[in-house]
Specification:
9 helices, 2 domains, MtfA_fam, aminopeptidase activity, 259 residues, Cyclin A, domain 1, alpha/beta, disordered C terminus, metallopeptidase activity, Mlc titration factor MtfA, regulates ptsG expression
């Protein structure tokens, strides 16, 4: 058995035996997540409950000797719970834990081109997730970067709930798939057009890679800069509010603006 799997199991058993975190713990955690102030109180209460269950049922493994402190694990659990606010933690049933690197990590990639030549290269990543596997994030020294990486990877996990990484997360009955895809495609095209003309939209340019990256990047902006996203694309903001069953603030009043 690989050493890291054995370590994950031992950490899981130890964490299951510990009492659940109290309100003071979550207040401390939320102070390390700048955008937590954007989350309405009722939603924040549910996030805390889900996060406590996440801590009790998932394991955390620090790669390259990174110590997993209560604060670090709580931070990640809180953000994972935020992504699961509407759906509940069932979307995370297919993996057992989170691997945390102290900095961006490299993986060896291999692919064959159109004429059959095989190429290999090292790819530097901030995070990674795949169906059935652990969620991997890099913590690093930049707290703001770390916050976005965690949101991004757990949004990927939400997208994978149906086994397909296609930018379509589990949708509520009020949001038909056709409407979600239309809103996302329109926003993605606008993003690409604005980047081509030198504008600075609120979404990270990485979102233009395709729907599978647009959704997690849009999720980052929805929670961290809700007013900017609502002003840039009200339809996208409203669709994400349905996906997550909450409306983060502070908001801007765009009711008098024309489309």
């Amino acid at each position: 058995m690989p050493a890291w799997i054995d370590a994950l199991r031992r950490l899981w058993r130890a964490r299951r035996e510990r009492p659940g975190p109290d309100a003071a713990f979550w207040e401390t955690v939320e102070r390390t997540i700048p955008y937590s102030a954007n989350i309405p109180p009722a939603a924040r209460d549910r996030v805390r409950r889900l996060a406590a269950r996440f801590l009790a049922t998932k394991t955390f493994y620090g790669a390259h000797g990174l110590p997993i402190t209560d604060a670090l694990a709580g931070n990640i659990a809180w953000q994972a719970a935020l992504v699961a606010h509407r759906t509940g933690l069932g979307i995370y049933d297919d993996f057992v834990g989170v691997i945390v690197y102290p900095e961006p990590f490299r993986v060896r990639r291999r692919f064959a081109d159109e004429i059959g030549l095989v190429h290999e290269f090292d790819d530097e990543l901030y995070g990674e997730t795949w169906d059935g596997g652990p969620v991997i994030v890099s913590w690093g020294t930049d707290e703001e970067e770390g916050v976005q990486v965690v949101l991004h990877e757990f949004a990927h996990r939400l997208d994978l709930a149906d086994g397909a990484l296609d930018g379509v997360p589990p949708l509520p009955p009020s949001l038909p798939r056709a409407r979600w895809e239309s809103v996302m495609e329109t926003a993605l095209q606008r993003l690409q057009d604005e980047l081509d003309t030198g504008k600075s939209p609120p979404l990270d340019p990485y979102a233009e890679e395709g729907p599978e990256e647009f959704f997690p990047v849009a999720t980052e902006t929805f929670f961290t800069e809700p007013a900017a996203l609502a002003a840039w694309d009200p339809a996208l903001f409203e669709a994400l509010a349905e996906v997550y069953a909450l409306r983060p603030g502070p908001m801007v009043d765009f009711s008098c603006k024309t489309a």
